[in-house]
Amino acid sequence: MATEDASTVEVLDAADTSDVVSVLCEAFSDAPVMRFVLGPSERYAADLEKLVTFFVMARLLRQEVLLGVRSSRGLDAAALVSYPRMRTSPPELTELRAELWAELGADSLARYETFGRAADPLTVSEPHIHLNMIGVRAASRGRGLGRAVLDDVHELSRRDAASSGVSLVTGRESNVGLYRHFGYELIGRTDVDGAFTVWGFFRSKEAREPALT
Predict the structure, then answer these.
(1) Would you place residue 212 in the very low, low, confident or very high pLDDT band (cuts 50, 70, 90)?
(2) Is the dihedral of CA 63, 140, 133, 93 positive or negative?
(3) The whole model's pTM is what?
(4) What is the spatial distance between Cα 37 and Cα 35, in angstroms, rounded to a whole number?
(5) CA end-to-end distance (rounded Å), the chain
(6) What phi-psi label fits residue 144: left (phi over 0), alpha (psi between -120 and 50 degrees) or beta?
(7) 16-28 residue pLDDT tens
(8) Measured on CA atoms in the order 91, 96, 99, 101, is the torsion positive or negative?
(9) How many angstroms separate the Cα of 146 from the Cα of each of 75, 137, 140, 142?
(10) Count of CA atoms in the C-beta half-sphere (13 A) of 31
(11) How confident is the model at residue 88 (pLDDT cuts 50, 70, 90)?
């Protein structure tokens, strides 16, 4: 999918891990879910990097998908894609998960589980693709990179006979109208421990892409 500077969305691999983590940490530094899970801490930036690194490694270990857009400056945008109930987790992922929560602490784990329980009613039962995270560097926003990555995620679903569509959740109310514009239907919303609200969306694989504006 071409963008304004002829960049293209590409599938990334383990060699791109640090760049993907950097993009997503920048994009999610103030995300309500991250602030909730990690809590107030002088180690927030370091803990955020550990958490995002785990999410990236989970996709790699489960042979799922990392997408990105590069330019002469480096990696400008990135996304993590998973296949709920369609892939198995290897033992290495279980070990990484245990190491992560041992480092982040029991309080962060409890808040992460609270978030998971609150968001569970927003999950989709049929096989589908889930957009875990998508982010664009601040310096590269306004160039259509987010749309380019979304279009490629939608194409992944269309090419996968087992996938019924794409799901995602967001903790930013400003994203609600944006995802509706791209053909996502609201599944519902839920309150997470009185701290913030999460909205769940699903986009059928038959949905049409909105016209370029």
Answers:
(1) low
(2) positive
(3) 0.93
(4) 6
(5) 16
(6) left
(7) 999 999 999 999 9
(8) negative
(9) 13, 10, 10, 9
(10) 22
(11) confident
Q: Are 31 and 172 in contact (CB under 8 A)?
A: yes
Identify residue 106 by its one-letter amino acid code. Answer: A
pLDDT in the model for residue 2? 39
Instruction: Provide the mean pLDDT of the chain.
Output: 93
Of the candidates 132, 153, 151, the residue with the CA atom closest to the CA atom of residue 27: 132
Token digits of residue 21: 């983590």
Spell out a b/e string for 55-70, using b for 16 or more CB atoms within 10 Å of the CB, else e: bbbbbbbbebbbbbbb
Residue type (1 letter), 103 = E
Report yes or no: 123 and 84 within 8 Å, Cβ to Cβ.
yes
d(CA 157, CA 72) in angstroms, rounded, equals 29
Q: Tell me which residue has tokens 């995300």.
A: 31
Residue 87 φ then ψ, to 5°: -135, 150
| Ordered alpha helix ranges (H), the chain | 17-27, 32-38, 44-61, 91-104, 106-119, 145-159, 176-181
**Strand pairing partners for 192?**
196
pLDDT at 91 over 70: yes
Q: Rounded distance, CA 26 to CA 167, Å?
A: 23
Q: Please, are residues 29 and 53 in contact by the beta-carbon 8 Å criterion?
A: no
| Beta bridge pairs of residue 191 | 197
